[in-house]
Q: What sequence folds into this?
């Protein structure tokens, strides 16, 4: 087992491949050319790194016409990448989170396909406080009142449970160092908030804009003031 872990960590630990994996955390698919720009390297070099990540089943590639698009092969990969951010020593972590260039990312962002950052953590804590979800052995469960809550949002709990992925799990937020809601339930909640215009995506960034409508909803429903 330690040999296999060593192989995966050696793949992730390369600076170019680290940049590739971090760039893909916005849950978009990118071409090799786009990823080469992100990593500031040549097309030939990026191709070699992408092939290694695909062979290790960390990435998958899909062809559309003349182009190939790369994305994560499974949700466990971005969860692992985000979790590694929590291993950064406290002194370095403080420098990163105190950097004003990171303010929008720290405030509200996507972590692959669910909500993260300060807003994501506060929302998860509110769901726990209001007994909409409960914590049980490294997972979240939806309570009876939670079933009604998600039904009002037209989020089908039973359909989400049938997906071939974790239903509702805690994901350690690298900037807040607290948990936010991940899994198919976390993804569905973000999708619903986007469709209701509570939050909006921003171009070329993982940062998420919390709208005035979203702020009003969070305060009126959960007394979250952000």
A:
């Amino acid at each position: 087992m330690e040999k296999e872990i060593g192989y995966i960590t050696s793949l992730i630990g390369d600076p170019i491949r680290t940049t590739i994996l971090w760039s893909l955390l916005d849950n978009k698919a990118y071409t090799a050319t786009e990823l080469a720009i992100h990593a500031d390297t040549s097309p030939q070099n990026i191709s070699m790194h992408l092939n290694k990540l695909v062979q290790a089943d960390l990435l998958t590639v899909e062809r559309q016409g003349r182009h190939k698009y790369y994305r994560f092969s499974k949700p466990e990969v971005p969860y692992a990448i985000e979790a590694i951010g929590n291993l950064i020593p406290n002194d370095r972590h403080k420098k990163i989170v105190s950097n004003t260039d990171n303010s929008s990312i720290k405030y509200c962002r996507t972590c692959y396909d669910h909500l993260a950052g300060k807003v994501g953590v506060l929302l998860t804590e509110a769901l726990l406080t209001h007994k909409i979800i409960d914590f049980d052995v490294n997972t979240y469960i939806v309570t009876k009142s939670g079933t009604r809550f998600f039904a009002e949002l037209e989020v089908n709990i039973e359909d989400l449970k049938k997906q071939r992925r974790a239903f509702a799990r805690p994901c350690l937020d690298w900037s807040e160092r607290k948990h936010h809601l991940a899994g198919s339930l976390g993804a569905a909640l973000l999708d619903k908030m986007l469709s209701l215009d509570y939050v909006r995506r921003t171009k070329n960034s993982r940062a998420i804009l919390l709208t005035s409508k979203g702020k009003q909803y969070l305060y009126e429903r959960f007394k979250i003031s952000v």
About this structure: The first strand starts at residue 59 and ends at 64. The first helix runs from residue 2 to 13.
